[in-house]
């Protein structure tokens, strides 16, 4: 219950970021009288691929939850036999997908700074873009740390209990939340002004 209440407060935080985005977008007018928005050449194919990876990581996370609920912590077959995977394998895959997403976001930031000169202080768009996507990236990084804690608990615990399964489920709530928020951010930032 506490996690759901906390995620509700996080939802309000991201709602404020969305409000900031739309407010600044509505008042940013270029010299020709048109919107000077987005103000940078965003890499839609890269971001769409990153989004796909992040959304699929929710699927792998949920597969881990199913294994946690069944009490299956580790695999009982070949690493290549996905049907025999346990929580650990699914959460490691989810971690790697999330880390790839963060790496893709950093790569896009690098390109925007070096090729377009878009920085946090270069324009209103830069401020809004980096604040919204950056805070989301920090939340993804927090989720990655939570996955490491859950994975560590699977090795530290003498036996798998309901409490350990609950911690895996709570981390999945957070991860699904982060994914849903990104879908909204992707739609607003990358698709709205196409």
TrEMBL record:
The keyword Zinc does not apply. Residues 1-194 form the Heme-copper oxidase subunit III family profile domain. Gene3D superfamilies: Cytochrome c oxidase, subunit III, four-helix bundle (1.20.120.80). GO terms for cellular component: plasma membrane. CDD domains: Heme_Cu_Oxidase_III_like (cd00386). One of its GO terms (biological process) is aerobic electron transport chain. Its EC number is 7.1.1.9. Its main location: membrane. Keywords: Cell membrane, Membrane, Translocase, Transmembrane, Transmembrane helix. InterPro entries: Cyt_c/ubiquinol_Oxase_su3, Cyt_c_oxidase-like_su3, Cyt_c_oxidase_su3-like_sf, Cyt_c_oxidase_su3_a-hlx. PROSITE patterns: COX3. It catalyses: 4 Fe(II)-[cytochrome c] + O2 + 8 H(+)(in) = 4 Fe(III)-[cytochrome c] + 2 H2O + 4 H(+)(out). Belongs to the cytochrome c oxidase subunit 3 family. This is cytochrome-c oxidase. It comes from Thermomonospora cellulosilytica.
């Amino acid at each position: 219950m506490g996690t759901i209440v906390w995620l509700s407060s996080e939802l309000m935080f991201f709602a404020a970021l969305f409000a900031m985005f739309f407010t600044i977008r509505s008042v940013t007018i270029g010299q020709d009288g048109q919107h000077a928005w987005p103000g940078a050449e965003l890499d839609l194919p890269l971001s769409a691929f990153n989004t796909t990876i992040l959304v699929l990581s929710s699927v792998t996370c949920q597969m881990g939850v199913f294994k946690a609920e069944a009490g299956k912590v580790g695999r009982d077959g070949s690493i290549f036999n996905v049907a025999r995977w346990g929580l650990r394998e699914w959460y490691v895959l989810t971690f790697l997908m999330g880390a790839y997403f963060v790496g893709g976001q950093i790569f896009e930031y690098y390109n925007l700074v070096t090729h377009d000169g878009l920085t946090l202080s270069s324009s209103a768009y830069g401020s809004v873009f980096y604040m919204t996507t950056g805070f989301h990236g920090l939340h993804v990084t927090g989720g990655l740390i939570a996955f490491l804690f859950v994975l560590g608990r699977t090795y530290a615990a003498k036996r798998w209990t309901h409490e350990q399964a609950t911690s895996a489920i709570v981390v999945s709530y957070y991860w699904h939340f982060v994914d849903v928020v990104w879908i909204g951010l992707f739609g607003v930032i990358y698709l709205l002004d196409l």
